[in-house]
Amino acid sequence: MSRSRTLAATLAAAAVLLAACGYDATPVPKAQPAEPKAASSSEPVQCDNPTQSYAPSNDRAKAVAELKNKGRLVVGVSGDTFQMGFSDPVDGELKGFDIEFAKAIAKALGVTLDLRVISAADRTELLKNGTIDMVARNMTVNCERWEQVAFSSVYYNATQKVLVRRDQAASYQGPESLSGKKVCAPTATTSLARITEVAPGAEPVGASNHTGCLILFQKGDVDAITGDDTVLAGLAAQDPYAVVPPQQTKLSDEPYGLAFNEDAVDLVRFANSVLQQMRTDGEWQDAYATWLKPYLKVDTAPPAPAYGR
Fold first, then answer.
1. Cβ-based neighbour number of residue 128 at 10 Å
2. b/e map of 188-203 (b: 16 or more CB within 10 Å)?
3. Which of 43, 107, 36, 115 is nearest to 77 (CA)?
4. Domain 3-26+46-157+254-307 has CATH 3.40.190.10
5. Residues 186-212, mean pLDDT to the nearest whole number
6. Are the beta carbons of 73 and 59 closer than 8 angstroms?
7. What residue spans carry the region label Disordered (predicted)?
8. CA atoms within 13 A on the CB side of 30
9. Which of 16, 58, 95, 220 suits 153 as a labelling partner, its CA being 20 to 30 A distant?
10. Phi-psi bin for 101: left (phi > 0), alpha (psi -120 to 50), beta?
11. Does pLDDT of 160 surpass 70?
């Protein structure tokens, strides 16, 4: 088989793998009405700065004691968000940028890593009911979520950007370049709303998810796709004619944190110590270079941690 046909086959396999995915990647159940939060004697979560987490600690014993299953760190991940958390069609193993952090924390704890593929909609509930210990699934840190879970320090500063055809990349100068063009994003998302605000001359086109946008893009029905740069990196990895222009300005900030049960403070502190080690020993940079840089084509540094809770 020729090299080009091998590439086409690999990309086709990945596209099948990612079918019906997008930000959420795995099936998303209908949202259920939130139950009233039980009264608590603990102090309310302070959220002047949602990216602030708990100061790091190397107390492994305390962290291990907070695991729900002895000897195992159970982590909820995506199974098909390409480059972030996906099942490799070649060997079936879960791989990606998010998976690297789960591996590092389990190794530091000295326990077995148990990866569970979950939907984005289930992240919070599975942490609250103790089914999983941690979420590593491109989860944006915000004040509303701090009311239900605890977050690590930010491990990646995702941003909303735009993907275009490779031959249009050099001429892309920001939202103004989208005037008169069709831009796709999943229906009823902040990405679609944001592109409407910043590029009023563009024609927004909704799809069920980002894979749907990629199909429209490949058919020539839309000119560009917008979303988190991490998601766009996965789309670019599937289409050799797509690129995320490296010179573009971000449209919004989406800081990602690892999420934990709100009571697992010692586990959060230990995770923060691992993240700090990854920032300083080059492990973070290696993960970025492997999974995201080839498609985002920009150098970036790990985000500086913020503590104070």
1. 14
2. ebebbebbeebbeebb
3. 115
4. yes
5. 89
6. no
7. 29-56
8. 2
9. 95
10. alpha
11. yes
- CA–CA separation, 217 vs 142, rounded Å? 31
CATH of domain 159-252: 3.40.190.10
Domain residue spans of the chain: 3-26+46-157+254-307, 159-252
Per the CB < 8 A criterion, the answer to whether 274 and 61 are in contact is: no
Residue whose pair of structure tokens reads 């998010």 in the numeric block: 98
Q: State the average pLDDT for the chain.
A: 86
Instruction: Give the integer Cα–Cα distance in Å for 197 and 283.
Output: 38
183 token code pair: 């831009």
Angle at 270 between CA 267 and CA 271, to 5 degrees: 85
CA distance 287 to 229: 16
With both helix axes pointing from N to C terminus, report the angle between 210-219 and 229-238 in degrees, rounded to the nearest 10: 50
Say yes or no to pLDDT of 2 above 90.
no
- Residue 264's CB is within 10 A of a number of other CB atoms, namely 22
Express each pLDDT in 108-139 by its tens digit: 999 999 999 988 888 999 999 999 999 999 89
φ, ψ at 148 (rounded to 5°): -120, -25
CATH topology of 3-26+46-157+254-307 equal to that of 159-252? Answer: yes
